[in-house]
Amino acid sequence: MASGFRTRFSLPAGICAVYLAASASPARADCQSLHVPPAPAANTTNPEAPFFIDLSGLTAAGMAPQRDPHNPHYPPAQDLPDGSVPPETASGNFVLGPAHPVAPEFAAAASAPHGRIVSFTMASGHSARFNPGIVRDDPDSCPNGAIYTARSAPGDPSDLRLTESHPGPWTRQVDVYVPAQYKPGTRAPFLVFGDGGADGIYPGRDLFAVLDVLIAGHRLPPIVAIGIGSGGQDAQGSERGREYDTASGAYAEWVEREVLPLAQQKAGITLTHDPDGRATMGVSSSGGAAFGMAWFHPDLYHRVLAYSPTLTNQQWPHNTAMPGGAWQYHSPWAGNPKATGSQPGAALIPDAPHKPIRFWFAAGDQDLFYPAPAMPDGMHDWVMASENMARVLAMKGYEYQFVLSRNAGHVDGPTIGQTLPEALLWLWQGYTPGKN
């Protein structure tokens, strides 16, 4: 989920309960009349019962809960001096201070050689994988309204029942950044990022500006960046949700077969086949998709960068083979917390052989927390998801850097402005160009 309503909740003294709202707090004036049914009762007291919501380390902070980065339930993390970022060669867990100065590379971008940008449009009618698309009918022109008026299955808040979606078309813009130093005919390393294009959540021009500076300073090789617009709308029952929140290799396969050939043709470039020279990036749901691209296809991608990745249960429709969606990368399905081994509720990373994936990711200490009232399922806490992800990555010996940013919300702009150059440099550590 990228944006939308914040759920009203109450955190009484001792933080012993959470009350998911009987009505949403709409972000737009034309959503004020939206009727949201009462949410199912939330389990906030019994960790051994299904769908437990862990409230440890939470305090009320305006409309969003604020997490203590040193909650004993989280992996240990190193506090950084306010305004600084982790070393680009370090791995592990770090906490940013509350001030987020813009990295100096942004100011230097004005004088760096600029790469060229080639844009083109894709439509569902020409797609083999995502044709037709999915369109969700939201009430009263209210974005995500159908999600907030939906109900979950009786006794199973992880299964959202949503009937307002139907086949429909999509169009999207793709932007290809080609660095000034690219030599025609050579196979370029590249980074694919979701939520790009003209209507993207993250403005590709900021990424392109940082790449201009890092490449010109020989701190990165000449990397092509490909920003792909989403298929539209947000979260469950949308084309964007279908592509990004489905925990499978489908999105990576669509990019490989339909986007990359067009990008090479339109921009006159050649892209490497070496998975170590291929990276993925995203924000929110596209951040979850970025990890899934590498997890399900390590033959294609080895490097992942994500801000506020949706490593939560946002997959729709409900899949009984993986009922927790992206939550199951790191944690068992909350409906059966004792699920292990080959059972459908088991977590993927702990039980799988180590994969050649390098992962940089960040979350805000005021990141999303149960945005859909009908789903108090123990699997919609964005910070907890990232902390759990850091824990299992460390346990399996992965190279990762996780940053929890103080004074920061979901896909926090100041945090991105502070950390993006360091994140890119960390991401590409150890890359040797020129294999294939």
Description of the molecule:
There is one protein chain. The chain is α/β, with parallel strands linked by helices and 436 residues long. It has one domain: 3-Layer(aba) Sandwich (Rossmann fold), CATH 3.40.50. It has helices at 104-108, 145-149, 204-216, 239-245, 250-267, 285-296, 382-395, 413-427, and strands at 6-7, 24-25, 58-61, 64-67, 78-79, 92-96, 116-123, 133-136, 151-153, 156-161, 165-168, 171-178, 187-188, 190-194, 224-228, 270-271, 278-283, 303-307, 358-364, 399-405. Helix 4 crosses helix 6 and helix 5 (250-267) crosses helix 6 (285-296). It is globular and about 60 Å long. Residues 3-26 have low confidence and may be disordered.
Structural class by SSE content: alpha/beta
CATH architecture term:
3-Layer(aba) Sandwich
**Cα end-to-end separation:** 36 Å
Q: What is the succession of H and E elements? A: EEEEEEHEEHEEEEEEHEHHEEHEEHEH
Number of domains: 1
CATH superfamily: Alpha/Beta hydrolase fold, catalytic domain
Q: Overall 3D geometry?
A: globular
CATH fold name, please?
Answer: Rossmann fold
Strand order of the largest sheet: 5-6-20-19-18-17-14-15-12-7
Specify the number of helices: 8
How much of the residues is beta strand, in percent?
15-25%
Stretches where pLDDT is under 50 for at least 5 consecutive residues are 3-26
Q: Quick check: average pLDDT? A: 90
Helix content: 10-25%
Rg over CA atoms, rounded to whole Å, is: 21 Å
InterPro entries: AB_hydrolase_fold (IPR029058), Esterase-like (IPR000801), Mycobacterial_A85_antigen (IPR050583)
Protein name: Esterase
Keywords: Signal
